[in-house]
Amino acid sequence: MVKNLIFCFFISVISIIIFCSLKLYTVNNANVNYSTFLSEVNKNKIIKTHINGKKIEVTKKDMTQYITYSPFYDFNLLNVLLEKKIIIIGDVPELKNIFISTFMSWIPNFLSMIVWFFFMKLIQISNEEGTLFFSKNKAKMLHKNKVNTTFLDVAGCKEAKEDVSEIVEYLKEPQRFQKLGGKIPKGILMVGPPGTGKTLLAKAIAGEAHVPFFTISGSDFVEMFVGVGAARVRNMFENARKYAPCIIFIDEIDAVGRERGTSVGSSHDEREQTLNQILVEMDGFEVNAGIILIAATNRPDVLDPALLRPGRFDRQVVVPLPDLIGREEILKIHMRKVSVANDVVPIIIARGTPGFSGADLANLVNEAALLAARYNKISITMLDFEKSKDKIIMGSERRSIIMNEHQKEFIAYHESGHAIVGRLMPGHDPVHKVTIIPRGQSLGITLFLPTNDIFSINRQKLESQIATLYAGRLAEEIIYGSDKVSTGSFNDIKIATNLARKMVTQWGFSDKLGPLLYTDVGKTVILGKSRRPVQYFSDKTIQIIDEEIKLMVDINYQRAKKILNENIDILHAMKDALIKYETINLLQIDDLMSRKPVREPEGWNLR
Ligand code: ADP
Ligand code: ZN
């Protein structure tokens, strides 16, 4: 900041000097041209001239004065003036003039030297601290007193917290570890999906250990100009050395750390240089120098192996999506900061939010707070949480879309199809809610939520998912006939086909092809101008793959069709319930499935 001010100050001083020197040159502009002067001489209008080389100061008979310049040294002029009896005055030859004019002629050079000097100084400064030119996204440093995140702010990743707690001990008392000759890792790689709290955890380490925290994102290193990224890495480490013990946190390390030689385009050299610089710097500091590098990624598989070698990022800490209890704890942490009503039970919210990351849960609390504020409530109620959850999972309601009765019925049949088959297929996640209120991109939604946290999915469940996905379209077909089937199932078809493809080519669920890897979406090759997943199969196999995918879809399509035909009475009843209530919940779906009268949802009378 101060440097920027000094910079502005010098720029203005320099412009003032330039302006003034221009003025020096222009102030004595001739205001009368030479021919007018000659004609006035001839007309006897002049009494006095003061000649200095080509410059002539003229005094007229009416005592007005002006300056004119002769285009060349006009020696003849003297005779003319003498003839007209005009007084001629010359100047005392002065040494000073020469000095001044020499000085004047040097001013531009002088100025450019000054400008050059400051420019160089600036580059030097920006290299040292990176604050002026390429500044905006350079490593941010949080001073040790400013990091007020602690382990209490992080929940849902107990193992990860335990993994890093020894780092805290070390940063607090490096001497104790050094004395024992213990080796603390230089680099820790935090692996996990976005929003699980990797940044938060790294910050908490700094907060707990009371050390400065440097943070930069991998994408900040990837610059247009070759060398900038590497220079930034250098600066960052130089800075960190001054403040050791400290933590350097590199978010999205995969932006720079991708395996070398796999990228295309112009940013490629720059990226490699940056990566090399990181490696050099990491090797450059002693094991116990007190600098700990923490990098975060959700794609450890694409990282350059050199980064993962011993002495570099050789320690991995997995930060997974939180489980049920984890989600409850995270919700509690974020609820501490807002005013929550008595009816709110965090564990119930946690149960309804499988797959949510810590960041999603923080967002949920925030959305609920906004919603409560919109209705001027004094605290956030369970209903606010429920509504915000639906909004995050399914998108906002779009009640502005007006549908006529026939369209509503069409959507109701489609969604009921999904719900019924989802209920009756083995191993499928339970139906949580069905709605025909348009939300986000879709006109109706059937929401399935897993009861437990999913760690891996089995073949039965996948096949059930495919059947359920086609059930919407099948309901349309069964009720209205095959020529009335709509394009509304595009997304269902897409998801189902992709599932079937993965089952066949990656997860080994095709009996004919066996458990072999045929494509690898994580690895890509460049074909012509585009990138494709790596494919490991011959031309002969490609046909079998297609057939097996088709078979996988066909079998489950038929299973869904059978279920719907056998339960067509439930299909009609669910459609009626949806038209009446627009959204039906778990308990109502239970009633429908057991062919009982549908109960009214809670609060239905209050509407
Ligand atoms: P990541 O770095 O893994 O992408 P962040 O650490 O940036 O995720 O998380 C973003 C925000 O989400 C955090 O500032 C915090 O408010 C919230 N959050 C994420 N994970 C957790 C967690 N495990 N415990 C508490 N809050 C979390
Ligand atoms: Zn559908």
From TrEMBL:
One of the GO biological process terms: proteolysis
Keywords, in A-Z order: ATP-binding, Cell membrane, Hydrolase, Membrane, Metal-binding, Metalloprotease, Nucleotide-binding, Protease, Transmembrane, Transmembrane helix, Zinc
Catalytic residues as annotated in Swiss-Prot or TrEMBL: 415
Molecular function (Gene Ontology), one example: zinc ion binding
A Pfam family: Peptidase_M41
Signal peptide: none
Domain of life assignment: Bacteria
Bilayer-spanning residue ranges: 5-25, 98-119
Any one Gene Ontology cellular component term annotated for this protein: plasma membrane
InterPro entries the record matches: AAA+_ATPase (IPR003593), AAA_lid_3 (IPR041569), ATPase_AAA_core (IPR003959), ATPase_AAA_CS (IPR003960), FtsH (IPR005936), P-loop_NTPase (IPR027417), Pept_M41_FtsH_extracell (IPR011546), Peptidase_M41 (IPR000642)
Keyword Protease among UniProt keywords: yes
Cofactor(s) required, per the database record: Zn(2+)
Binding positions for Zn(2+) per the UniProt entry: 414, 418, 492
Primary role: Acts as a processive, ATP-dependent zinc metallopeptidase for both cytoplasmic and membrane proteins. Plays a role in the quality control of integral membrane proteins.
Subunit structure and binding partners: Homohexamer.
HAMAP family, alphabetized: FtsH
Protein name per UniProt: ATP-dependent zinc metalloprotease FtsH
Species for this entry: Buchnera aphidicola
